Amino acid sequence: MSDRILDTDRLDAFISQFPVYEYRILDTSEIYTEERVRTICMQECERYGSTWACPPAVGTLPECEERIHRYGHALFFSSVAEVSDIMDMEEMLKTRRAHEKLTTDVGHFLEQEGFEIYILSTESCDICPECTYPQKKPCRHPEYMHPCLESHGVVVQEIVERQQMEYSLGGNTILWFSMICYGA
Strand 20-27 relative to strand 73-82: parallel, antiparallel, unpaired? Predict the structure, then answer.
């Protein structure tokens, strides 16, 4: 893909409409996948092997890394959500939908700017009550289903630290992260 430049003034104007806390433009050649993340998925996540957004449906780690590197850059960003009780997992997960919509909207902006995109976002997809993956039927909503960053072996905390971004704001505040790979 060619290395067309994103107009950051237009991006700033667009993104300022949303509760984006921070964002960075990354060179995808500096994004790596880690087997340890996939191992955690396999051993600890109940969604492993049950959705198109999770391993093994997303492909092998080398395939995931190649898919990310196919694009020259990535927009990595966080959004803020507030809950009354940070220990209430159900309340916390309800705030994720707003972040996923935001991620889709930012992706559409990049497409309108003439870029091809690939979106990675939070957790595993929960759009449908039951995913078609186990039956190997196509995803019902591929335009809204964003595989999670961790499904691709991306260590979010390492990117956050390298980019000197906030990982936690404390209190009853949640930061959700997404990465939209883009290229012309």
Answer: antiparallel
Residue type, 156: V
If you count them, how many residues does the chain have?
A: 184
Is pLDDT above 70 for 2?
no
Q: What is the pLDDT of residue 1?
A: 52
Residue-wise over 113-148: b if at least 16 C-beta within 10 A, else e? bebebbbbbbbbbebeeebebeeeeebeeeeebbbb
C-alpha torsion angle, residues 41, 55, 159, 125 (rounded to 10): -90
Contacts of 54 (CB under 8 A, 6+ apart): 41, 45, 47, 48, 124, 125, 147, 148, 151
Q: Does 49 or 179 have the greater pLDDT score? A: 179
pLDDT tens-digit readout, 145-169: 899 999 999 999 999 999 999 998 9
Token look-up 């694009």 returns 71
CA distance 178 to 118: 11
Reported as a single tens digit per residue, the pLDDT across 77-91 is 999 999 998 888 788
